Amino acid sequence: MAQDGVTPGGGATEGQARFGLLGRTLGHSWSPLIHARLGSTPYDLIELEPDEVAPFVREDASWRGLNVTIPYKRDAARLADERSRRVERLGVANTLVRRPDGSIYADNTDVLGFGWMLESFCRERLGLEGAFALAGADVLVLGDGGASQAVQAALEDTGAHVSVISRHGDDGYEGLPERHPHALLVVNTTPVGMYPKCPATVVPERDLAALTELRGVLDVVYNPRRTGICLAAERLGLPWQSGLAMLVAQALFSSEQFQGARLDRSLVGAIEKEICDQTENVVLIGMPGVGKTTTGRALAHLLGRPFVDLDDAFRLEFGTAAADFIREHGEAEFRARETQVAADYGSRSSLVVACGGGIVTQPRNYDLLHQNGTIVQLDRPADQLSQANRPLSQARGIQALARERMPLYRAWADLVQPCTGSAAGDARAIATALGLFAR
Length: 439
Prior knowledge:
Layout: E1 19-23, H1 31-38, E2 43-47, H2 50-59, E3 65-68, H3 73-79, E4 82-83, H4 85-90, E5 95-98, E6 104-107, H5 109-124, E7 138-142, H6 146-158, E8 161-165, H7 176-179, E9 183-188, H8 205-210, E10 216-219, H9 228-235, E11 240-241, H10 244-259, H11 266-279, E12 281-285, H12 292-303, E13 307-309, H13 310-318, H14 322-329, H15 331-346, E14 352-354, H16 364-370, E15 373-379, H17 391-396, H18 398-412, E16 415-418, H19 423-434
Parallel strand pairs: 1-2, 1-3, 4-6, 7-8, 7-9, 9-10, 10-11, 12-14, 12-15, 13-14, 15-16
Antiparallel strand pairs: 3-5, 5-6
Helix pairs in contact: 1-10, 5-6, 5-10, 10-11, 12-19, 13-15, 14-15, 15-16
């Protein structure tokens, strides 16, 4: 029997319920934090081998609600006693609920989660009355895997005309703008651009630019926050959104199943913001000698985060200080290796990062730092900057460097912070401007 809607999960009390995420290799997951905020606790990460899944699901009576991820979504649908219409439609489930009578109910809240993200994107970013306004519109879904199925289902429910773009099908990536000139929306469901192989995009920016009727870009990937396709959309001035909202929304709909109660929908935005605030790097740029390192240390201490100075990271990676490397090997070789270091730390999360003054001279570094970061320029008059042990400042002159780099700093910065006179004061001003607080 197939049905939809909130299914009673038994209303178990604290300490008796067991919720969790079932998968094979889970690594880090935001699900425990999300479900703690939603009230479905205690929540565990449950890693099982394929032959362990059926006995655990069918015979282990300790769990009351499970989220299920790859590669076990088809198993979850198969092992259930009852399936929602969404599960019957797609053949996969990401939510299992053990009812009070011991029977197991399967649902697919990925469809609901993407539907939530799509609805809010249409209303808040595209200025439409809702996702139903996509009826008859051409929407491109990149990829044909499991995530694609849920996205296609949600889009088809709006009446959109969905085209699946895949390397394995007849509708491939070559010549995309010529075949789909009227595409209104592009949704990436492939893993291309996911951490740690980021930023990357399965559709190059030039092809997005050639879609002259394109209104927005969505990506189900949520780490990094700005995937390659989202960065490309941002440069083109297109509204974009990555998959964190979908992750939180599908968890909310699962938690409703677990708890047998409707939850406040405003929790989606609140939890999404909380995660963004915790994970977004703060990246400091500015002229040599402006105080990025001392301010970065003070800000990291204030926020309770790790601090990374990219010049120190360069020395650890290559065994020599940046200034010495430039003197011995030249600036061009230094910049190439500096980019390697920026790529490593820029893909991580929850850091305060201080960059060398010349990081902005290489355009490729912007995406590396912006994918997970808010970029803050520290600013003070050039005549107040120290030139000690700074070979480029000494060779070219600080004023010449300022004329070359200041437009780049301004173009990269999400926030320009004038120096207050102390590193502690600068750190407090940045934290206040970004709405960040110590944890």
